[in-house]
Amino acid sequence: MKNAIFISLSLVTWGFYLQILDTTVQTVIVDMLGQKETVKGVILALANAVPLLFFPYVAKKSDRCVSRYGKRTPFIFVGTVITVFGVIAAIVCAYALNGKSENNLSAVITYGLFMVISSVGIGIYRPAAVAVLPDLTPKNLRAEYTAVKNIFGSVGGFIIVAIALFLKDYYSQLWLYIISAVLMSASFIAYRAAIDENKMAAEVASTFADDEEEKLAETLGENEDYLKKMPSDKKRSLAFLLSCTFFVGFGYFAITATYINYAETMWGWARNLSNILIVLIGVGGAICTPVAAVVQKKIGRKKTLLLGIGFMLVGYIVCSLMLIEEVFASCGWLIYVMFAFIGIGWGTQNVIVYPMVMQLSDSRNNGRFSSLFTIYYTLPKVFTVLVSAVMFDALGYEVLFPYSLVSCLVAFICVFFVKHGEET
User: Fold this and answer.
1) Alpha carbon 7 to its chain's center
2) Percentage of the chain surpassing pLDDT 70?
């Protein structure tokens, strides 16, 4: 298990970066530089979309890489360096150029440019960091190691949120970026000091090499058109499962990209204290993960998924009702409970949808189906930050929770059309 901890250090940078996007871009662009939500949405959309362009290429290159440092470590290193450089350059330019041009155009452009450059680093880093776990893990321990990996992937985000709780104004964002860059660098140094990738890969190779090579050969051969050969009813179930993933994320990511400005504008909360909301989402998700795994064995995956999305629907409905002044005045404390509900629902669907998708695959096409799930998980984050930002500028922040509610309701309906994916 000690190896699992050190291997998982390779993923901490992703947690830091993801939370930097969610926690600070809205503050820097809207509050510090005085831009509209649409500008923030464009920058966030680019920062989430650009890495997708690199994922297939880096995955293929790292598979074939031979070096004294291992297959994945060189890519993890290069990606981390670019990401650290990008986030530091972005915030320094934002501060240095703030107020130096009309409408802060130069500050916005340079900040956005360097944030996109940092996302290029993530595009190089993330595929290699994800792949290093199965490379260095015996098959019989992969489930346990994956659990540790998921925890460490969240650690970076929680650290950023914890630090943000103590930042009183947007001028202190510089320290958040500096601390994040230092911790990204430190996590790679700790990973590199503890893990000799080539040595560990050689130690575990005999455990699964032959089996994996056989699967790879089959995947590249006769099973390339597996999706086309699937029965139409299974294709339909797959389409609705992926649609469910997309629409749940479409509503959820709109909230994580806007919650700070929303809480300050609509509820009058202090900026730093609004970060408690994302903590509640994380706590709710962490609590529900083992519970959902048990519940799905009792009532089935589909019903568990509906239950999880139901928690999110309740959260969105109650938060929408907080637009009514009398409800907010008498029941404002329910906001904390509802964000925990949103976290429970989000965590549940993350636990349930992926195995349902994989249940529709065969053992020779797991990589292809995993890629499909990852794409539909990521795409809503690209689109919703832009779509929702345009809506906020046109209609105001009042539309946030109704917007998320409608998206989640569509996802809820999609589940009823899923007829496959239960555990067999």
Assistant:
1) 19
2) 83
pTM attached to this predicted model: 0.72
What is the full DSSP assignment across 347-403?
Answer: HHHHHHHHHHHHHTS-GGGHHHHHHHHHHHHHHHHHHHHHHHHHHHHHH-GGGHHHH
With CA atoms as reference, report the closest residue to 113 among 141, 143, 93.
93
Q: Which two tokens stand for residue 131?
A: 């792949």
- Token couple for 271: 């900026």
Amino acid occupying residue 252:
Y
Report phi then psi at 409, rounded to 5: -65, -40
DSSP-assigned letters across all residues of 36-101? -HHHHHHHHHHHHHHHHHHHHHHHHHHHH---TT-SSHHHHHHHHHHHHHHHHHHHHHHHHHTTSS
Contact 29, 40 (CB under 8 A): yes
CA distance 252 to 369: 23
Name the E strands within 69-196.
none
Structure-block tokens of residue 228: 């086309």
The model's pLDDT over 35-91, given as tens digits with 9 standing for 90+, comes to: 888 898 889 889 988 988 887 788 778 777 888 888 888 999 999 999 999 999 999
How far apart, in whole angstroms, are the C-alpha atoms of residue 63 and residue 50?
21
Determine the angle formed by the axes of helices 73-97 and 105-135, rounding to 10 degrees: 160
Measured in whole angstroms, the distance separating CA 242 from the mean position of its chain's CA atoms is: 16
Measure the CA–CA gap between 412 and 424, rounded to whole angstroms: 23
Q: Where does residue 260 rank: exposed (0-12), middle (13-18), buried (19+ CB within 10 A)?
A: buried
Q: How far is CA 21 from the centre of its chain?
A: 10
DSSP for 313-350, written as a single string: HHHHHHHHHTTSHHHHHHHTTHHHHHHHHHHHHHHHHH
Q: How far apart are CA 42 and CA 308, in angstroms?
A: 30
